[in-house]
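Module 6 notes. Inverse folding takes a fixed backbone as the condition and produces residue identities as the prediction. Think of it as a translation problem where the source language is geometry and the target language is the twenty amino acids. Below is one complete input and output pair. Work through it position by position during the lab.
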């Protein structure tokens, strides 16, 4: 990077899409609305295509706002856009078993103050199967370390940061992380495609008014600076 005030040219060298396509019938959290996308109008009938989209705010690759778990918490539209964009550190925890806790020792230091944490469980390979619901999850101690390290946002390639299958009331990771106003992206995919150092990541959500969360097009970029 250049000196303060110096103009720097940044180019995108390569990118990696970290999002699942939004299509009818994709996996959803238990009791969440199903995703249905069907034609509302067609070129053959009305002269133009428009889709009728029905889904929950937490559908597909999405990001949680504090209001998802905290009644007086920030809604997704209240965050400035820059919170969702930044240099990412990756916690590679692949190899964990079903329902395994991700411990605090797996959480790396941010590359620089703030930044985004991506937790790579490898569980996205089970997308669409029953196994997807038995993913590893973030322990309370790991969540506390994420907060203590000052991450501005985080994401995981699993259905939830908390245990899904067999869990009815323990949402410690959500409570701790969202309680610190750190948005949480879930259902990421393709983290193994980030094969360069110091990736920049965008987790920008739809700006749903008073939203508890929103779908995102998550993307990692390899940048080159002059």
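Target side of the pair, the amino acids:
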């Amino acid at each position: 990077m250049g000196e303060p005030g110096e103009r720097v040219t940044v180019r995108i060298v390569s990118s990696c899409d970290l999002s699942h396509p939004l299509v009818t019938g994709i996996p959803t959290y238990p009791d969440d609305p199903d995703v249905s996308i069907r034609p509302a109008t067609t070129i053959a009938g009305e002269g133009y295509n428009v889709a009728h989209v029905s889904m929950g705010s937490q559908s597909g690759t999405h990001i949680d706002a504090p209001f998802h778990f905290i009644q007086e918490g920030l809604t997704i539209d209240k965050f400035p856009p820059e919170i969702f964009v930044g240099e990412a550190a990756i916690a590679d925890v692949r190899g964990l078993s079903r329902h395994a806790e991700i411990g605090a020792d797996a959480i790396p230091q941010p590359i620089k103050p703030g930044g985004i944490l991506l937790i790579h469980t490898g569980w996205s390979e089970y997308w669409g199967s029953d196994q997807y619901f038995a993913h590893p999850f973030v322990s309370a101690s790991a969540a506390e370390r994420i907060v203590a390290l000052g991450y501005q946002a985080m994401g995981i390639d699993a259905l939830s940061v908390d245990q899904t299958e067999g869990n009815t009331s323990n949402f410690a990771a959500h409570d701790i992380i969202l309680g610190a106003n750190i948005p949480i992206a879930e259902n990421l995919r393709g983290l193994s495609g980030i094969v360069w150092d110091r990736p920049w990541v965008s987790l920008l959500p739809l700006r749903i008014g008073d939203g508890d969360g929103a779908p995102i097009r998550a993307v990692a970029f390899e940048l080159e600076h002059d």
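Reference fact for the lab report: The CA atoms of residues 42 and 62 lie 28 Å apart.
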